[in-house]
Write a structure and sequence with these properties.
heterodimer; A: Immunoglobulin-like; Immunoglobulin-like; 9-stranded mixed beta sheet; 5-stranded mixed beta sheet; about 25% strand; elongated; B: alpha/beta; Glutaredoxin; two-stranded antiparallel ribbon; 9 strands; about 30% helix
Chain lengths: ~700, ~200
Amino acid sequence: MTRLFGIIFCTILIYISTCLPTLARQSLPVDTGKVTASLISSHDSVAPGQSFYVALRTDLDEGWHTYWRNPGDSGEPVQINWILPSNMSAGDIHWPLPKPIPTGPIVNYGFEGTPLFPVEFIAPANAKTGDILTLKSEFYYLVCKDVCIPENGTAQILIEIGDTVTDDEWREPIEKALELSPRKAGVNGAIDNANNRIQMTFTDLPKGDVSKSYFFPYPQGVLQHSQPQEVQIGADGLRLETAPDYLWDEGDIPKNISGILTYTDNGIYRGVEVDLTVNSTVDIGAISSSKASPSIGDITVWSALIGAFLGGIILNIMPCVFPILSLKALSLAKTAHNDRSANRKSAWAYTIGVLTTFILIAIILVIIKSTGAQIGWGFQLQSPKIVGWLAILLFVIGLNLLGVFEFGAGLQNTGASLTKKDGFAGSFFTGALAVIVATPCTAPFMATAIGYALAQPALIMFIVFIALGFGFALPFLILGYMPALLTILPKPGPWMVRFKECLAFPMFAAAIWLVWVLSFQAGANGVAIILTSTMFMAFAIWLFKAHAKWTKILAGLAICIALSLPVTLSPSAATPSLDPVTAQTDTQIWSQEAVAQNLAQGRSVFVDFTAAWCVTCKVNERLVLNTKAVQTLFSETQTTILIADWTNKNDVIASELQRYGRAGVPLYLVFTPKTGAEKGIVLPQTLSYDVIKEALEN
Amino acid sequence: MRRVFIPITLAAFMLAQPSLAKIDTGAKVSDMVVTDANGMTHNLSDYTGKRIILEWTNHGCPYVKKHYSTNNMQNLQKQTTANGDTVWLSVISSAKGKQGYLTGAEATLKNIKRGAEPTDVILDPAGVMGRKFSAKTTPHMYIIDETQTLVYQGAIDDNRSANPKSVQGAKNYVLAALEDLEAGIAVQDATTSPYGCSIKYAR
């Protein structure tokens, strides 16, 4: 019964709305299904010859969307057909700013919520006061969620000729919509297709943040809507890079392509209309930052923090940290059966040592960055001096572990006393040492996080580094608070001495590795210098065993010599001789030109960004790249291997790493004739045969 | 924890797996094994020497309905396959549970009811074939020539509306392409923007 009444009521309403003119500034709303549509006007009455706006207002059900003038990969634009008095005509739709709406692998351009579509009208100049203008519209839109429904309807609105009276309710929303509707603002733009990549360059940008800009082209077929647009900010402008679509294939591309460039101003999402000149570029000055654009997988502060934290935890089991951690484990084993509060103190001291060192590294990075230099993670080990000192330090610790000498009280703060002292200083310096030695290892997750951090303001960078430090220290912090875990260890006894001595050998191994690194950085002379240093160090330790005063002075002198010798180390002039992928396959030195050349010859390219001090790189080379299977794969797929060696400081390589959002090595790229030379496929940091195969064959 | 992992993994693998890589018009279509409504597998290369017309479809989509309710699609199927040298494959890439998904038996029944006569219906609920061809909409049309070269991809015609009346008078790109092929000349409109509903891929 009520239903019947409802139907009758609706019929009456529809009858009224279509037949009886009512002087409302909003037409009766039409519920077309998923959308409620109406016409609204900026004015209640207008003078003859005056301009005013009428908008189609569409109120979409939650989760449903309609489409922009270029609907993207599918869909159909909102359409309005006006039926007007004979002496009137309608202007163009002032389109609202669209947003990308991804559905699976498809990206559409459209609207959600309550978009308005304002259109300008001019009252006929010969109209008389008291005349009524009847503006009727037939509208049509495709509205989609999981499924699509075409909906349409008609609505009409009546405007009186008379004094100028704006509408209380609707003038403001219409003005707001007009203000947000993108218009030209003097932005220069150009578009070019080079090596199957679209480059859009813009200068004279509007005021605001363009780091997440996106370009919506008016025509279809210019760029692939589903591909991310990568943002690069230059001193004088902006560059967006993405994949071209079919218009470029057949020379059908028009001379000019218009569209909307988005940006944010004070947190408000805005856009400007830009005409792009085809097959040209505008100069945007020096590139300052590069970031993938909003549509997919943008890394946020939070994911960077979590990534850094997880990366820190994983660092604990990376090969470069392991020897140091065995030291810490030993010191814990000593206290395991003693005092619980001492355990906690020592865990915290270790944590603070780790954090302090990470913060120091961050400070140094900020300082170096402010001078404009290109640096990245692992930069400490790019200096042969630091590598030299580290080698000496590890050698001395090894001797100490072997029981060659014991530290005196006066030396307790040198950081090497860590195994002797269970106190605060000992744990603190273990933490510091662990971080320094950990730097050559980039754990999975950490690379993206640090790459992100380096491109951020100092504060965010510090926070990311602190998260990294906490992750790194976490296992020992847990041990400090859960002594139950420590009771698993056997009771203290003579075994501890043997265990301690045994730990000397990983130390020596780490020292040998550093000397090996040094051999690439400073050549044979560098190796000789550092081995001489270690000899002086051993000599000093031997002298300390005698108690005469003059032997101590002499010992001090020997230490001075040992520590100052590495200062003379400098990067050798010789070109890098690093040859990590040694087998028969075609191996060349990396350069961007080399990538392009090989592609031009129809070959694929595998780029190995590596460094002698990068342990992850070495592991990948040993376990994956140098295996017969992978080498065969490379030769079968006609792949050239290009080595980018970052053992020493190299700005070209650093900026290339930055282009891929990385701060350090390893980075593995695959270029195939399909990808073009501009942007390779990034492989994960832990390589496998399947990953390489898939990338090469894709 | 999972929510946290996803953005990171996404960031790491984003560039490694482009979501829709397109096959350029003029490129060869490599081997591709597909399954039809009867559960039989075919390799597209088995059809070497014949012309293949691919039609992405979704019976619930208004743009597909436009072409079936007007018998436009059925007529096109009959007309193009009459010579026996052309194979028409209707492809359903809707994921299970989404609009347009049909089992083999349902798809066959559907076609009997509406008088459609494709050579076969290909079931692609995982979206493998759809993604390989970068199919975006229903309908989305492809023509592969006798040498397994992709010679046309895009819309069925030039009226991008869901209104059934718009079929009349529209330029049918598939027929035009076939005429060009018959005349032995290169297809003039070899790539157009497809229109219609987005394909309801498995995510």
